[in-house]
Design goal:
It contains 13 helices and 11 strands. It holds the Pfam family Polysacc_deac_1.
């Protein structure tokens, strides 16, 4: 399945106020000190177990990618003239997001929302509603740009443009980042560290967060994800753009996600679910997701928190940074 935004040729407790959380975010160190980095980065080793706070044995976070129209427009700019397609994407900020915010408020759960800069500019009231609800805003590109074959300068420009948009619209400086389509480059960790980001949530090599080496004696916290914990593969269908026409029943999707949660819970891991308001904001899907949120929130041994809170906790553990070195293929350029 191809996601919109990929290159065309590849197609086939008491809640704290958000402003206080942002202040804490800005104070959190985005890079590790030289002293801690001197312990060295062990290459290609498993992530260390994480000791969770408050006596909890596992962690969980509900995250939402507020892609809206940007998820389609980057890879399919001609879709801008397709009113039905644009309405499908606009359902997220216009209808799905308010429903999801009501559910989260009713369960007293704070979440992380990854927002492309274009979404902030096109739907400013929706993005401000996320902040007003006490949730974390994080970076998700500007126009949901695929970073495949993107050079360093172009990637840096996308990061800066997205940061400017979120600051302009919502008055936030995010400490978290998720690459569109979870497609980091080998330049990404360093570019994020240089801009003061605390964490990324795009990689898939562990069940717990860890410190990802960013070069130059710096690191960022990595909070892993994987494709099985994403609603796109369950629900997304747009003719000629995404999906094969199979749309799963919400009970099936949530059953799979709950199975992953229970397994990670036993492992002491970190459950990170990714949903999109234009998909999971539909009534039956939102109702099924509400049941999962209620279940996870009711597990006394699980710390349920936004990703920013999880990243700050992990940063305080002073873990040794890890790396995923670029493979060297014989006969290929470095």
């Amino acid at each position: 399945m191809t996601r919109p935004g990929e290159p065309a040729e590849s197609a086939e407790g008491e809640r704290p106020a958000m402003r206080s959380a942002e202040s804490a975010d800005r104070e959190a160190p985005a890079v590790r000190s030289a002293e801690s980095a001197e312990r060295g980065t062990s290459v290609m080793r498993p992530a260390e177990p994480v000791a969770w706070p408050y006596g909890k044995s596992a962690a969980a976070s509900f995250t939402f990618d507020v892609d809206a129209e940007s998820a389609v427009l980057f890879g399919h700019p001609g879709a801008a003239s397709r009113l039905s397609v644009m309405s499908h994407q606009a359902y997220g900020p216009l209808t799905g997001l308010p429903r999801l915010l009501r559910i989260l408020a009713g369960k007293e759960v704070r979440a992380t929302f990854f927002v492309p800069g274009y979404t902030a500019h096109r739907h400013p009231d929706a993005v401000r509603a996320i902040v007003d609800g006490g949730h974390e805003i994080a970076h998700h590109g500007y126009l949901h740009e695929s970073l495949i074959d993107t050079g360093e300068a172009a990637e840096a420009e996308i990061l800066d443009r997205g940061l400017a948009a979120l600051d302009e619209v919502a008055g936030v400086r995010p400490v978290g980042y998720r690459a569109p389509m979870w497609e980091l480059t080998y330049n990404s960790p360093r570019l994020l560290a240089e801009r003061g980001f605390l964490y990324d949530s795009s990689l898939m090599d562990a069940d717990v967060p860890y410190e990802l080496d960013a070069g130059h004696a710096t690191s960022i916290v990595e909070i892993p994800v994987h494709w099985g914990l994403d609603d796109w593969e369950q629900y997304c269908y747009l003719p000629d753009i995404a999906g094969a026409g199979l749309i799963e029943h919400p009970d099936k999707a949530v059953s799979m996600w709950r199975g992953e949660f229970e397994a990670l819970r036993r492992e002491g891991g970190c459950f990170v679910l990714t949903n999109h308001p234009f998909l999971s904001g539909r009534p039956a899907r939102a109702a099924a997701l509400e049941g999962l949120i209620e279940h996870v929130a009711g597990c006394a041994d699980v710390w349920l928190a936004p990703l920013g809170d999880i990243a700050r906790h992990v940063r305080g553990l002073a873990l040794k940074p890890r790396a995923i070195p670029k493979p060297e293929l014989r006969g290929s350029p470095p």
